[in-house]
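Take the subject:
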Amino acid sequence: METTSSSGNPLMDFSDNLADIAGRIGRSVVAVHGRHRMPSSGVIWRHGVVVTAAHTIRREDGIKVTLPDGRTVSALLAGLDPGTDIGVLKLDGVDLDPIDSGDARSLKPGHLALAVARADELGVSADFGVIGSTGGSWRTWRGGQLDAFVRLDGGLRPGFSGAALADMRGQVMGICTSALMRGAGMVIPGMTVERVTDELLAKGRVARGYLGVGTQQVSLLDAWVDKMSLPFSSGLLINSLAPGGPAEQAGVLIGDVLIELDGKPCRDMNDVHAALGSASIGQQLQIALIRGGERHACSITVGERPQRNACR
């Protein structure tokens, strides 16, 4: 919702509009005490539901939330999704108005944006800037899928992870996080927040496929490319195996080079993540490897990725 008052001074009108947006959104922004020292921010996304940045939640019990009226109440952890850095908390007996969300895909580089946080006893904090770059759907380094790529022009101040990111209409485009790109703040789009929140409230987790391998991208020898008539020149070197994991059970060895998953090229981790959605869990996946300079094939039963396991 835009403000319509005019003082005849464009800069003053602009400044008043920013303050109005911060004030209105601040009524749905809370402080989340889920780690030591500085709290993070969170947004009342639905009635009784707070969304925050998952990386700021360091414990499962004893989480507190400071409300806009200054009260501090207990929150129940509904679930965390490290892949998208979304954490969902439930509040009992608290009925605050949720934010008015918009479509982050409408953002373009250079658009003005306002981050609204509540990370300390001083109340609402705001940080004004521009959108640095945007793009289509984007897979994070942790394997989660964001519905749009939205990078802020710069990093986030302490306590602003989990803050609401609004456009100049006062619509919340998503929540801020510092955990998905080194040195830059990112926006987790509202569409992604909605989708992941549904799954966390229903199941407490977001299920993703899991092979149980650690990998490193490598360039393939020209001799291998020619011998196997490969239309690509990179693969993934297997440098670790989770004990008892799907790959180890299928006979994959450290030193193998993964080149295909279900008949599709496997050149980098994006190709692996693309093949390991929730629908793949329990399914047989045909893979092709290079072992000792020869092509080798085997079948892996895809597992469900442990929630706190670094292997993919």
